[in-house]
Design a protein that fits this description.
26% strand, 354 residues, Peroxisomal Thiolase, Chain A, domain 1, alpha+beta, single chain
């Protein structure tokens, strides 16, 4: 089975703590709300301390659909290049050796897609295969890894690179006063990440972090209304149902336990978790669904607090933090994310130390 060799994440340079962001939204929205304290409460209850934004905070008021997307392309490529170069340099592998290049994002649209555009910036081989992934939202970090793993099963001597980039701030709609948009404006941040994956016969396998021993995809029928975008003339308007934590609590545990059982494992055999931090209620629902009581999802909580929900990139930050812990995890780990569809993606990881 293929391997995750290493991960590198990067952030835009514009950082604002949550209080500064609340102050800005007060300027924008206070006239429309007779009780702005409700919005302040929403923003504080998501337990995000601050976020990195694609643009300076005073640049957002004048954005239209075209300018949002133009900024998305420009900043996405800057972050992808920064993460990709650092990742390949650290792994001591040339861009020419990458045989599959995948990109995942749901916060903008580009044709040619992002991985085509980055090929002109990083000297990948003209024969590199491309895989653009759109529409998976928060799911795409794990789903992207899993789809690249599917490819590498049939190409065991090859190396592949996955980019995830989400600039959620560019799609906050100032005119949209729905609760879902208000919550999203206090929850989501911007970032990018790159993951190097290897077939199990690649020469760098001995320095890889985790083997992906199995993957699982789960689609929940008739749930597409829970999360996504509602497209209109102003851009991407967020769809974010309050019922998502209920679904996670009801379904995630069953899916995870079934996946582990298929591999002759149970939750007692899992030594570490790499979970997408969707929000406080979602993380709490995951903990309850899995019966976790000992801060097993601490890194997910930490990433949420420091950066906000970064959509597909969040789980890559948790994975990177897992690799940077003082004691490298051993044994089996469970990586997971949930997102639009509504769907779940899971990966069973096995540490090289096992």
């Amino acid at each position: 089975m293929p391997w995750i060799h290493s991960v590198k994440c990067t952030l835009p340079s514009h950082y604002y703590d949550q209080e500064a962001l609340i102050k800005r939204f007060r300027v924008l929205w206070e006239k429309q709300f007779h009780d702005f304290s409700r919005i302040e409460n929403f923003h504080r209850h998501v337990l995000v301390e601050g976020r990195h934004l694609a643009l300076e905070i005073d640049k957002y008021e004048s954005l239209d659909l075209k300018s949002r997307n133009d900024h998305w392309i420009k900043v996405s490529l800057e972050l992808m290049q920064e993460a990709g170069k650092a990742l390949l340099q650290e792994a001591d592998i040339s861009p020419q050796e990458i045989k599959l290049l995948a990109s995942a994002s749901t916060t903008g649209i580009a044709t040619p897609s992002l991985e085509a555009r980055i090929m002109n910036l990083m000297e990948f081989s003209p024969q590199t295969k491309r895989l653009p992934i759109f529409g998976l939202g928060c799911l795409a970090g794990v789903a992207g890894i899993n789809r690249v793993v599917d490819y590498l099963k049939g190409a065991p001597q090859e190396a592949a690179l996955l980019f995830c980039v989400e600039l959620c701030s560019l799609q906050v709609q100032i005119e949209n006063l729905k609760i879902s948009n208000i919550i999203a404006s206090g929850l989501f941040g911007d970032a990018a990440g790159a993951v190097l994956l290897l077939g199990d016969e690649h020469p760098l396998v001995n320095s890889a972090a985790f083997q992906v021993t199995d993957t699982h995809s789960e689609f929940f029928p008739e749930s597409e209304h829970l999360m996504g975008w509602d497209f209109n003339n102003t851009g991407f308007n967020v769809v974010l149902s309050s019922k998502i934590p209920q679904l996670v609590q009801a379904e995630y545990g069953k899916v995870a336990q079934s996946f582990l059982a298929k591999n002759q494992l149970s939750s007692k055999d899992i030594g570490f978790y790499v979970a997408h931090p969707g929000g406080p209620k979602v993380i709490e629902a995951m903990e309850e669904a899995l019966g976790l009581k000992n801060q097993e999802l601490k890194l997910s909580w930490d990433v949420l607090a420091k950066y906000g929900n970064l959509s597909s990139v969040s789980v890559l930050f948790v994975l990177e933090q897992t690799l940077q812990t003082k004691k490298m995890p051993s044994g089996y780990g469970l990586m997971s994310a949930m997102g639009p569809g509504f769907s779940a993606e899971l990966s069973l990881l096995k540490s090289h130390q096992t």
